[in-house]
Amino acid sequence: MSKKRKISLSEDELVRALRNREKIAIEALYDMYSSSLYGVISRIITDTATAEDLLQETFLKIWNSFSGYDAGKGRLFTWMVNIARNLAIDKIRSKDFKNQNKNQDLENNVTFIDERKNTVYNPELLGVKELVETLKPEQKAIIELVYFKGYTHVEAADELGVPLGTIKTRLRMAIMLLRRHFN
Hints:
By secondary structure, the protein is an all-alpha fold.
């Protein structure tokens, strides 16, 4: 099996190929700039999978918005670095990314504390079981399955023979009722 040779074009050749939307342009773009652009992204986004996804998004944006590139305003590399950097910053500022990191950190911290302190989650000691008893029977059943037995929403829907949307609605209502006790 032979190793694929990397494509290298001059900046003028690459710009011309990108303007003409030639296949070799995207291949050369990746071969010539992927490691540099990934470096820019990974300084902002530390999660490898997310950084790799953003690299792919960067190449798509370069390809799809190349008509906006003006050689008179700067070099191609500078324009591409700005695209990569802006996508990474937009990702960090996005609500999904912030929520994902908050949720992940909480989950990892709880696991870490449980392992270090050898603790076991016991809802009876928190009084949660008593609060759940105050819910309607259909809400109580869903809370039991999802939170105490670890069922997914789909598994709980199958177990109770209820549509998934109904499970989610009842679960949301139950959580709202339980929150009142803690706020």
